[in-house]
Amino acid sequence: MPDLSQLVKAYDVRGVVPDQWDEALAELFGAAFVQVTDAAAIVVGHDMRPSSPGLSRAFARGAAARGADVTEIGLCSTDQLYYASGSLDMPGAMFTASHNPARYNGIKMCRAGAAPVGRDTGLADIRALVERWAETGAPEPVEKPGNIAQRDVLADYAAHLRSLVDLAAIRPLRAVVDAGNGMGGHTVPTVLAGLPVELDALYFELDGTFPNHEADPMNPANIADLQARVRETGADIGIAFDGDADRCFVVDERGEPVSPSAITALVAARELAKHPGGTVIHNCITSWSVPEVVKEAGGTPVRTRVGHSFIKAEMARTGAIFGGEHSAHYYFRDFWNADTGMLAALHVLAALGGQEGTLSELVAQYDRYTASGEINSTVDDQAGRAAAVKEVYAAREGLELDELDGLTVTAPGEWWFNLRPSNTEPLLRLNVEARDAATAARVRDEVLAVVRG
């Protein structure tokens, strides 16, 4: 019996192939997905990992055996799959393990219109069916199985993105893009074709063994080549995508990383220019700059917990036009509330090319504070160490404490920190922001002294 408790996560399926799962299990997931969503038709895509085509096709077989017609779009980014789910109005499944090492693979599932499927929205039911069928045998095929057909949606996906951001009149730009041998190498050339952007392609060869570096731009080591190339060539901007290309990271003309919070604020201002008075979602560890810029642009900022399911739920509830996270996930109402790094990248290119200054000059207005970045501490007792921190700061006057997501402590106008437990590891995650570097360092060290005892 496979151990699905290790395979089915809060928002997706993810594990080592073939140790934790294989094509036989993928076929059961396909059948369960159709049964839980009650879908007459679904769309399926996959990334460039060696195991992805086989797993994807097995899932399609399982889905068809339960009576659903399956549209296979083949190689695609995760946001390209969301595009297909939205534009075709079908539930969808994307085979990818995002930034994980090559031996991993997974499934990101959504309902029609790219609505997420997570533990509380169908994934627990899918897991229960797969567990039952893995023990008792696959369900009997339905009387009329579905068909499996292929369709290429890359050009339509690119056209849709370009319809949302006008780049026709921008000044010529030189951009280095690091695809990390991931799906950005598949999508970027089509999306940028014919635009006034001179593309310097770094690691665009699709290779799920990741021969150059891991496709995880959150790790500073993985953007070192991008930074060096931007400095060497005098490019205007550098952009890095993760393995399934749903997140984008930006470096400026000096090769310096641009905070995802600054990108969130920049894109929010542009979206508010299109949709005056709109609502923008941000999580509790994005910079103070984000709600400030949103208010200055006439919008309404709404703060929520970290994680795409919370962002997407708040976007649906409030009708928000845009949402952004510190992890470089960017969500758009014009993209079925789904996250798309490519659309965020187009916004940054349009903003940069629409004025004469450098990127560092442009983003300075959106990057107003000093942040620590996320600092992880391994602890034996997450709850106990977090309670100790709360006790220290609750005793101090003039501070505000809230527990929307972990513990956030704020000294109004001066600094804030958030301390959150990891859901999957014995870690506490600390983020600090302050008006200056010295204050940020002081607060960081004070909190870590309590956390680490």
The total of helices stands at 15
How would you describe the shape?
globular
Helix content: 25-40%
Number of domains: 3
Largest sheet data: 7 strands, mixed
- Unreliable stretches covering 5 or more consecutive residues: none
Kindly provide the name of the CATH class of the largest domain. Answer: Alpha Beta
Q: What is the number of beta strands?
A: 23
Gyration radius, in Å? 22 Å
Q: Looking at CATH, which topology of the largest domain would you report?
A: Alpha-D-Glucose-1,6-Bisphosphate, Chain A, domain 3
Give the full name of the CATH homologous superfamily of the largest domain.
Alpha-D-Glucose-1,6-Bisphosphate, subunit A, domain 3
Q: Which architecture name of the largest domain does CATH use?
A: 3-Layer(aba) Sandwich
